Amino acid sequence: MNIENDGACLVFDGDIEEMQKITPEVEVDGVKVDVTPSALNRVEDLEKFRCDISIDQIAHNLGFKVTVFDGRKIYHGSKQGLKLFFIAKSLSGIEKILMFSFGEFQPRRFICIFEGVLEA
Fold first, then answer.
1. C-alpha distances out from residue 57 to 46, 53, 66, 116, Å
2. Which of 48, 54, 72, 106 counts the most CB atoms within 10 A of its CB?
3. What is the mean pLDDT of each run of 10 residues along the chain (120 residues)?
4. How many CA atoms lie within 13 A of 86 on its CB side?
5. What DSSP string runs through 35-57?
6. The dihedral sign for the CA sequence 120, 9, 107, 64
7. Domain boundaries, given as residue ranges, for the chain
8. CA atoms of 100 and 114, how far apart (whole Å)
9. What is the pLDDT of residue 1?
10. Using CB atoms within 10 A of its CB, is residue 117 exposed (0-12), middle (13-18) or buried (19+)?
11. Residue-wise over 36-46: b if at least 16 C-beta within 10 A, else e?
């Protein structure tokens, strides 16, 4: 499993209401991809989307912490308070999975970071 990661890229940092008014985007292979809170999928749902992908392996490859609380795994993002999310997108006929850290970093301050691309 190969994750293309040219370094984390800050997509958004601010109030969630502001993020809902704009459309942050990232560029992958020359294609702009909208990154809105509603477009982000919980990483736990990735195995429903593609059963051959190990979320634990993705977290390990990105160097992110995985903890267990009340019997459920929590996939942490690159900063405290952020969780791991994904967007599946077909780019140039190739299914790619874009990985993000997203969440409330401080009270009312939300951060979204583009972490890398997994070629599916």
1. 12, 8, 10, 14
2. 54
3. 78 88 90 91 89 89 94 95 94 89 94 89
4. 25
5. --GGG-EEGGGHHHH-TT--HHH
6. positive
7. 3-119
8. 5
9. 62
10. buried
11. eeebbbebeeb
